[in-house]
Design a protein that fits this description.
Layout: E1 3-6, E2 9-16, E3 19-26, E4 37-43, H1 53-63, E5 67-71, H2 89-103, E6 109-119, H3 121-130, E7 136-142, H4 147-153, H5 159-176, E8 181-183, H6 189-194, H7 200-209, E9 222-224, H8 228-232, H9 240-243, E10 248-253, H10 261-271, E11 275-281, H11 288-291, H12 293-310
Parallel strand pairs: 4-5, 4-6, 6-7, 7-10, 10-11
Antiparallel strand pairs: 1-2, 2-3, 3-5, 8-9
């Protein structure tokens, strides 16, 4: 693992088998060097990179005394991995474990005080990983999503028919050698309007991801279509009730929109063997929990208390 230091932000390269993950380690400005520090690995939303939502939360956690590691998923951002733009939920979970591997080698980090924070789709990935990687001692989620449930619910003819179509498409890709990519979101508000996607959640997603407000050149807004078959068969909460014994915190947006994160978060809360803190942020929408200071600060204050108590 190679590192270079810039102020209290370390640019880290995490070995992940034959590839490497690009990561940022956010550190407290005045760490307590007499005791090993607690640390949190962040699992970010689908399509996002470490400079976006993850940085908003990681930098705030570090300012409150908790080291926080955020990374670009394999196949995305500045991390390695081919083919590009693959959203593989199982590899997303493995990424978290590789990040923990890296944290345990960093001087000053206590390997017995590592937690995870999952946001949006990353919430489901974090939970799925924590079930079987018990190096994770505390699990927190913000507007968590179960990507399997979401993708199955989006199919007008049902998930089985969608899998049939994806099978045909992959056969054609194998013959042509040209893998198909699809948009996560319309690239502009005008494109969204043209297809009738004018609801507040889609609008707020576009104004975050596809404008200067939150956009990043390494967040492509493209997804390798063949990965959708993996998402359709995925369940982030499978066996949570039996395996995820760590303390759980769930933070939800108070304005219930069409993202499914409120419903997903409540399902998780009810499944978990050890739920200890539930917070609903009044007035916030799903995407406002990404970067609106009022809402993010409220969430991070509560996260800090949770991690301080359980790491």
């Amino acid at each position: 693992m190679s590192r270079r230091v810039q102020s209290m932000l370390e640019h880290i390269t995490i070995p992940r088998g034959p590839i490497e993950l690009a990561a940022h380690l956010h550190l407290p400005d005045s760490p307590d060097r007499t005791h090993p520090q607690r640390a949190v690995v962040l699992s970010t939303p689908g399509s996002s990179v470490k400079e976006q939502i993850g940085a908003n939360y990681a930098s705030r956690l570090a300012a409150r005394g908790i080291a926080a590691l955020v990374f670009d998923p394999a196949h995305q951002g500045r991390s390695g991995g081919e083919p590009r733009d693959l959203e593989d939920p199982y590899r997303r979970g493995e990424d978290i474990s590789y990040a923990i591997d890296a944290l345990t080698t960093i001087p000053g980090i206590d390997p017995q005080r590592i937690g995870v924070l999952g946001i949006c789709a990353g919430g489901g990935y974090a939970v799925h990983t924590a079930r079987t990687d018990h190096r994770i001692k505390a699990v927190a989620t913000v507007v968590p999503g179960n990507m399997g449930t979401s993708f199955r619910s989006f199919q007008p003819d049902g998930p089985a028919a969608a899998l049939d179509a994806l099978a045909d498409a992959r056969t054609e890709e194998s013959r042509s050698g040209e893998p198909a990519r699809v948009n996560w979101l319309p690239d502009t508000l005008e494109e969204a309007k043209a297809v009738g996607a004018t609801d507040i959640d889609t609008t707020q997603a576009i104004t975050y991801y596809r404008t200067e407000r939150g956009g990043n050149a390494y967040s492509t807004n493209r997804r390798l279509a063949r990965g959708d078959s993996l998402l359709l068969g995925y369940d982030a909460y499978h066996l949570v009730d039996q395996l995820m014994t760590q303390p759980l915190q769930v933070i939800l947006a108070g304005r219930i929109g069409n993202t499914g994160s409120y419903e997903s978060g409540m399902q998780l809360w009810n499944l978990a063997p050890n739920p200890v803190d539930l917070m609903v942020v009044d007035g916030a929408g799903h995407y406002e929990m990404y970067d609106e200071p009022e809402y993010v600060d409220a969430a991070v204050d509560r996260l800090t208390t949770f991690y301080s108590n359980h790491l």
